[in-house]
Structure formats: C-alpha cells, structure tokens
Amino acid sequence: MKWQFKFLFGLVIVFVIDQFIKSIFLDGFRWDGEWLSLILVYNKGVAFSMFSFLDQYLKYLQIILLLVVFGYFYKEKVLFKYPIVSGILFGAALSNIFDRFIHPGVVDYVYYHGWFDFAVFNFADVMIDFSIAMLIIFYYIKDKKEKKSQA
Predict the structure, then answer these.
(1) Beta strands in 3-98, from DSSP E residues, in sequence order
(2) Cβ 24 vs Cβ 102: under 8 Å
(3) What is the sign of the dihedral through the CA atoms of 77, 1, 9 and 94?
(4) Total structural domains in the chain?
C-alpha cells in the first residue's frame, strides 16, 4: 500500500498546484516582459498545437493513451519502483486533460519570446518533462548500474 500513497501524493500535489496557477490566469492575471510574458492562451492541440484538428476527440484519445501508459507502467513495475515520479507524470497529464473538459483548451500561460518565439506552456508541461527526464535517469541509468553490479 506504500507505493499507492506515494503515487497519489505526487499526482494530487501536481494536479492541485497546476490548477491553482491556472486559476490565477483565468482570473485575469497578465504580465508582459521583454523576453518572457505570462499570458492566458487556450491550446486546443498538444505540444506546439499539434493535432488541434482533432478538436473534441483529442481529449478522449489522450485518456486512452494515459490508460495505456498506466497499464505499461503497472506491468513493467515502474509504478512500484518510482511511484512519486510516476504520480507527478500522471497528475500533470490529468490536469491538462481536465482543462479540455472545462475550458476551450489546455490553459497555457508561460510565453518565451526572447531570441526566438517558443510555444506557450504551463506548469503541468514542465512537470511532464521533469518526470520523463527523471524516469529516464532512474529507469535506464540507475537500473543499468544495478544490473552491472549484480553481474
């Protein structure tokens, strides 16, 4: 039961923080800087607005994808070995999917426009990137070291 608590802890914390930050922008907060702006944007696609043509079907495809990833994580015991990082990943993904049901798209707000224009993103996007990076480090690098030392 220990891994479930850690998984839910990561999931709930990231989901709540992300939705709280998004509520600030939904309430009208805006800040424009020379190279970074904090603005409300509804992303109807995924990264860089890809697949926005799928419109309302995208959220259901994302739910299916998330269930497939969850099944894979369960089967491969990723959930048991790295429950907090897995919870962070699923909490962030669920927060963005949740947005699609209650807003016109995913609520994004960080816009970098310094030397080049970058996609507008949010806290959940950063947590998805962070958790994937951590899983790569743990799952591939750490596990390979453990397997080497056992051989």
Answers:
(1) 31-32, 36-43
(2) no
(3) positive
(4) 1
Beta bridge partners of 41: 108
Average pLDDT, consecutive stretches of 10 residues, N- to C-terminus, the chain (151 residues): 93 98 98 96 72 69 96 95 97 97 96 88 97 90 70 61
Q: Are 21 and 123 in contact (CB under 8 A)?
A: yes
- Residues spanned by the domain of 99: 2-150
**In which residue are the tokens 């709540």 written?**
16
Measured CA to CA, the distance from residue 46 to residue 49 in angstroms comes to: 5
Q: What is the Cα–Cα distance from 62 to 140, expressed in whole angstroms?
A: 25
- Residue 89 host element (H or E): helix 83-102
Catalytic residue numbers read 108, 125
Angstrom distance (rounded) from CA 105 to CA 51: 12
What is the residue whose two structure tokens read 């030397």? 115
What's the CA gap between 88 and 38, in Å, rounded?
A: 23
State how far the Cα of 21 lies from the Cα of 123, in Å rounded to an integer.
Answer: 8
pTM (2 d.p.): 0.88
Amino acid type, 90: F
